[in-house]
Amino acid sequence: EAGVTQSPTHLIKTRGQQATLRCSPISGHTSVYWYQQALGLGLQFLLWYDEGEERNRGNFPPRFSGRQFPNYSSELNVNALELEDSALYLCASRREPSYGYTFGSGTRLTVV
Amino acid sequence: AQTVTQSQPEMSVQEAETVTLSCTYDTSESDYYLFWYKQPPSRQMILVIRQEAYKQQNATENRFSVNFQKAAKSFSLKISDSQLGDAAMYFCAYRSALTGANSKLTFGKGITLSVRP
């Protein structure tokens, strides 16, 4: 089966712009999780979507938002980009009630 | 809130030797899952091994095994017969067994493992 796919692989934006990151989960997986991996900070939980609804969000400002589409793919939007938003953004999916998470290869966002 | 601590930022091991990566966690829950993930330079997180807290037996996957000490809230990963391909960043992670909002993974900061030929 195809794994979790993320696009784009790399993204360079200017401070103040908006970034859109995309994630396609494994077929049949209804939950999508977004994580931010900034240098030296490990993986920080951003958002969880399930069945098209936002179920939980981490300690991030409202300019981090997203959505999940009927086909369970997901989009992460980051508005008013700041330099410290530069990080690797990882998406993971899982099928309920399995506890296995499969991660994508991430999108490297650089804000200049 | 649950926390996961990996206090060693870096470790090195000689090829074919054994290395142990440490992880401690803090939780008030009695039922949960613990994971070790590997992140090679390709960036993709790969599940190495998982442990269910209600199981006393330590999980084993080929050359990878864990030492799960529930009372001490410790969850270390042992890699036997280390190979060059084991060089990567390793993350310890926790997930509540409860469904709903607690289903997210909580990660430690990771440890960089290098393997010397």
Description:
The complex is a heterodimer of chains A (112) and B (117). Chain A is an all-beta fold. Helices cover 0% and strands 54% of the residues of chain A. Chain A contains no helices and eleven strands. Chain A has strands at residues 5-7, 10-13, 19-24, 31-38, 42-50, 53-57, 64-68, 74-78, 87-94, 102-103, 107-111. In chain A, the strands form two sheets. In chain A, strands 2, 4, 5, 6, 9, 10 and 11 form a seven-stranded mixed beta sheet that branches. In chain A, a hairpin with a 2-residue loop joins β5 (42-50) and β6 (53-57). The radius of gyration of chain A is 13 Å and the shape is globular. Chain B has 117 residues and is mainly beta. Chain B has no helices and twelve strands. Chain B has strands at 3-5, 10-14, 19-21, 24-26, 32-39, 46-52, 60-61, 64-69, 74-79, 88-96, 106-107, 111-116. In chain B, strands 2, 5, 6, 10, 11 and 12 form a six-stranded mixed beta sheet that branches. A four-stranded antiparallel beta sheet of chain B has the order 3-9-8-7, with no helix packed on it. A two-stranded antiparallel ribbon of chain B has the order 1-4. Chain B starts with a strand and ends with a strand. The model of chain B has no long low-confidence stretch (mean pLDDT 93). The chains are: A mainly beta (112), B mainly beta (117). At the A-B interface, β4, β5, β9 and β10 of A face β6 and β11 of B.
